[in-house]
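Section 5.1 Outputs to date
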Amino acid sequence: MAEKLFAGMSYDRVLHKYADTVAGVCVMRLRNYADAEDCFQNTFIKLFQKSPDFMNENHLKAWLIRVAINECRNYINMNRRFVPLSAAKHETVELKENENDISWAMLQIEPKYREVLYLFYCEGYKVNEISEILGKNPNTVKTLLKRGREKLRKAYGGDEI
């Protein structure tokens, strides 16, 4: 039986190519490596199990990001009543301030802003693409970007963002 291809790539190639993207989305959303690993794994399991057809690599990447975001959201909702974040503090991602790296500042702002900023700056998506991935109006994405930049500026403590 022939191996299933995803936008012309094998499963292993997709995993290798998009692992950093999916991991980044999960870590930025959950702020906890162990939880992010679970959602990362679930995202790629869904890809393997569902084997959807993709028009191209951009469609595949957008699908993976959307599924990762949904996995994180489901994980948060499912575990909200069981473990308070303060109880898992020892596992929470804590990055120290570094003038060359704003990752620690990104983790200080709300997930809805982090998500949009991550997709825009780290993944290089345009506003319209982000709106499609997140299922939001393009003007909403612009507003989230603007407000997210302001919050990031305050968290980072500067005007150079």
